[in-house]
Amino acid sequence: MELGPPGGSGPAEPGPRLRGLRGADAAASASSLSRFGAEAGCRASAVAAVLPAGGSGERMGVPTPKQFCPILERPLISYTLQALERVSWIKDIIVAVTRENMETMKGIIQRYQHKRISLVEAGVTRHRSIFNGLKALAEDQPNCRLSKPEVVIIHDAVRPFVEEDVLLKVVTAAQEHGASGAIRPLVSTVISPSADSCLDHSLERARYRASEMPQAFLFDVIYDAYQQCSDYDLEFGTECLHLALKYSHIKAKLVEGSPDLWKVTYKRDLYAAESIIKERISQKVCVVMDTKEDEEHVGHCLEEMLKTELNHVKVTSGQDLQQIILEQCYNFVCVNVMTSDFEETQRLLNMVEESNLSILYPVVVISVHFLDYESVPLGQKMEKVMQIREFAKEAKKRNILLSGLLIYFPQEIQRDLLH
Ligand SMILES: Nc1ccn([C@@H]2O[C@H](COP(=O)(O)OP(=O)(O)OP(=O)(O)O)[C@@H](O)[C@H]2O)c(=O)n1
Ligand SMILES: O=P(O)(O)OC[C@@H](O)[C@@H](O)[C@@H](O)CO
């Protein structure tokens, strides 16, 4: 579906071209029932989001625009989309990308099964990209399929660490004040240089804040502002809150944001983002035992030890494995006591694959085999466990990192361990 440029109004560059890729409506998660959720019997305030993603990432210093740079083999923008998709009361997510990156963006949406996404063409500046995203939501556009929201969130596509709580804060504040934005304390002091590059004056740092994202606006407030916007502001402006003040005379409510709201701008930010993501997905481990009895003995011994290092440790003998996978655990220790077959591990791999869990992040599975070296010669055991290499090659294709661990115990110690 194409959206032509509005009749005579708006900037010179091509108007937004909406290529609806609206996925199936994501099931509203019960946990997100909120004043913006699908609560039965009350009119939910419609909220949409516009993600400017049409930049070239010059400061990153690599050929690929930073929003498409990989983190753990997945494009940065996919993490931001996932963060917004987790919020069930955001009904539409409009992403502004350049025409040349449109196919790349479509591929990301399909590969990572992103939902509620619509694409518009980016502009030559960030403000123009945002304006094109807003036009896709305005009802004054011909053939527009998206309904106008009451509140619109604007969030840079290169800010992947955005949580539901700050989104709720800025949207609630925007409903009350017309506009709202996340802010953070300044790290460096702001100074004003003179024409000859000497210090003219410095600002009292404590009196100022850094403007971050997300921001939220009553749709009409920000859309009217962009429609009145001068070409100079569209070309050189960097602050949507300023446009709301200058053109719609709305003073945005400022909301203290968390330290994670920073924007990926330089290469070091990409490394920082990767280590934060690794840290987050490695804090949850599930120990899968092959019997209920082992769960209560070996499993809980392991749980006590792991809890000294990790935030979330879950032990199961399989009955609630499906739920654990749904809760997005990405690390599994599959313990096979007294057996060297892989039935348990294979069952886990199948469940992980069926759940599409490894689409978004790599899943780590360690298959541990406690074996009595007196009953079976090492060579035969090693042959069995070496099979895991074949499993691992196949699993890697599905973003599942499988490894095997063979632990030999004389029979009596195993008995002691289990009782
Ligand atoms: N014409 C533009 C320029 C920027 N952006 C988006 O605005 C966000 C924040 O802008 P910035 O960090 O400046 O991104 P770039 O312009 O790509 O970076 P650089 O200035 O280093 O080139 C990014 O998601 C970027 O893709 C956009 O949608 N359209
Ligand atoms: O200026 P850039 O294009 O690097 O990034 C845009 C930022 O200025 C902007 O995201 C925040 O300051 C909030 O407006």
Automatic annotation (TrEMBL):
Belongs to the IspD/TarI cytidylyltransferase family. IspD subfamily. Keywords: Cytoplasm, Nucleotidyltransferase, Transferase. Its main location: cytoplasm. GO terms for molecular function: D-ribitol-5-phosphate cytidylyltransferase activity. This is D-ribitol-5-phosphate cytidylyltransferase. It catalyses: D-ribitol 5-phosphate + CTP + H(+) = CDP-L-ribitol + diphosphate; D-ribulose 5-phosphate + CTP + H(+) = CDP-D-ribulose + diphosphate; D-ribose 5-phosphate + CTP + H(+) = CDP-D-ribose + diphosphate. Its EC number is 2.7.7.40. It comes from Bos indicus x Bos taurus (Hybrid cattle).
